[in-house]
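Q&A log
Question type: sequence-to-structure
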Amino acid sequence: MPEGSSVVHIIQGCVKADRECQKTFYKMYYGFSMAICMRYCNAKDDAMEVVNDGFMKIYRELHNFKPAYENYETSLKGWMRSIMVNTAIDHFRKNNKNHFLVEIKDDHLETIDIQETSLNKLSYKEIMEIVQRLSPAYRTVFNLYVIEGYKHEEIAEQLNIAVGTSKSNLAKAKMNIQKMLKETEQSFYEQRAV
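Response status: OK
Response body:
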């Protein structure tokens, strides 16, 4: 069977509203989608809500999906990722009104470099747990800028905030992450000393 042909068959079934194909598709991409949504949500229940809303949008739009790359599944995941991120942003906007900081002028922002030594000791899961501990506003801007690669202008437009607010939230997120990394590093050394 050619690469992606079973996925194509399942997608064709989803377009025809075949329940078994939709169930199979959901199971195939649930973990992928949940990993994206957990970066934006406070709790697993919120992330599940975003995932389910995202899948509803995906099912409605699958008939419009056109692969952008040779690899069908890579194209599909990129397309789905965009939908999940946008759904998470919509969820954030709906549930976190007025949680952003006041805009800070650029000359007051100081970029914080996270110590590479601290990051080298942490697993992906531990890093994501630290990011998860950020406030919703900081976490959302951090994820959009650092992980998704959005520019501050795009983030400001997506979240209906000022560009300076996006920049200040990113700076505060980095400061909080640095503080948490120091605490984690200190805890690590204290445990080894015992």
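Response note: Confidence is low (pLDDT under 50) at residues 101-117.
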